[in-house]
Protein 1
Amino acid sequence: MNNKISVAVLGATGSVGQKFVELLADHPWFELTEVAASDKSVGKKYSEAVNWVMLSPIPEKIKDLVVRKCEPDLKSKLVFSALDASVAGEIETEFANKGYYVISNARNHRFDDDVPLIIPEVNSDHLEMIKKRSGGGAIITNPNCSTIGLALALKPIHDNFGIEAVNVVTMQAISGAGYPGISSMDIIDNVIPFISGEEEKIETEPLKLLGKHENSKINFANFKISAQCNRVAVIDGHTECVQIKLKKKVSADEIIDTWKNYSTLPQKLNLPSAPEHPIIYFCEEKYPQPKLHRNIGKGMAVAIGRLRECSLFDYKFVILSHNTIRGAAGGTILISELMKSQGYLDGIL
Ligand code: NAP
């Protein structure tokens, strides 16, 4: 017997679900004990239901777990959701109403008034807005995978200098479209200049994340973001080219220093999944690159480079973050570590 908290993953067979299985294999605080997915997988052993595409083998303890239905009769009261958005909204509500803590990667509940949208290094104080449902559970959300890299890069700039406007062009990896995702005929030798719903998420989610939690509500940050999103032939790692207009005149060195010195509650608490440095700035003009840097900080750090003056805005730079680690499973696990360390999971076994 150990005293780890038992967790379940909904959507455990998908792109993000597999990353949860991989990251939870040796977690010091959480033990993955239940996996759930769609009817086509239910009743099969996990190893038979999944088309495993992670580099490490399926953890021995998980291989033979029988895939459960996504119904709120699971033993684990802490549930990570990697469900497709077409079904996530309803299923997550059912779980929360039945007393489960659901931490979700899906878009459905991100703007609900009683649901915090959290990046632990950006707005850990927003956890205070968790309102337990009548059954004692709650929903907490992880932002969109491109939003996470962007919001982490913007947070220290916004706090120190004030942001007036942001323009961002993304180059997003194939794994961001789930498994099996886009057909090879569509993506090889190609760039697809459209990802459904993505631009809207990137233009709105950072404003909630950078907003202030006052009088039990979030006052959204007050600046405009314009986003253009592209799918590119990279397996993992979203790259974003960003232009920003600031409220204050500052030098490039001042911005780089705020990134380099950025350290927050998860670092102070030494949470198991927290990168030592959430932001890593590269001076080399060819960096960051997805092939070289997506796993930096075990995939939990955001790599930034090429900060330079912009002739239209004030500055421009490039961000890279791992979409299924920092942008999904790893980010969600970090939220749950923060919740545990802050007492939100007391009483959950
Ligand atoms: P995915 O590969 O398509 O996986 C979807 C999962 O949902 C599978 O396990 C699937 O189970 C399950 N599912 C589908 N329909 C279901 C139903 N009717 N009932 C129960 N389970 C059902 O998608 P993904 O890329 O992992 O994304 C999962 C979620 O995370 C999405 O909401 C996505 O927007 C979000 N997200 C993804 C990324 C990323 O980089 N991929 C990053 C951030 C957030 P079966 O295998 O049995 O069909």
Protein 2
Amino acid sequence: MVTIDGPAGAGKSTVARLLADRLGWRFLDTGAMYRVVTLAALREGVDLEDAGALDRLAAGLDASFPPGLALLGGEDVSAAIRDVAVTRFSRFIADCAPVRARLVGWQRAFAESDDVVTEGRDQGTIVFPDAYRKFFVTASDHERARRRHRELVARGQDATLEAVLADQRARDARDAGRAIAPMRAADDAETVDTTGLSIEDVVELLHRKVRPAP
Ligand code: C5P
């Protein structure tokens, strides 16, 4: 088990997916779980401040996460969960204690039988405290916002760099300041600053740390 935590837009998902491919391990994108519950809540019109209602919704969800995909009731929602609105409202789900506990259960079940590279905010601290290697991957907030903005534009979404940066700062502050499972580096995690590095450089760097050359 390798955990990769860190703030929004640090490239964690891509790095974790490529690292998992290279190791021949499975990849778990825990943000996708929070996003799927957010999307379902928005679609069903569930009150985002009602923890009981959110947990009932999550309990009844038919969600699955085959490699690179997110499925909700069999529908491929991989693109829909990256929507600006889903990103913005995901904080209600992230702050909801019973839903968090349920998603931690999904995450541990996913990792039960295989070696996994997992990424999120609380993977090294809360979900997998005994992981073999833990990384906290970050980059300057301007670089992270530029990357996320490029991604959104490539997907045809309408967003300014300033708005992406403002949303990202608000999300980072909330993720780090949350009462339960705040985003932080585990005491035994290694922090990797990816500012100025390509995705390939970061994957190579982490791979060398997980599998040092003999
Ligand atoms: O990583 P991603 O941007 O897809 O995550 C969406 C949101 O889900 C984050 O802003 C965070 O609030 C929440 N999240 C979380 N814990 C995780 C993964 C994501 O609280 N392990």
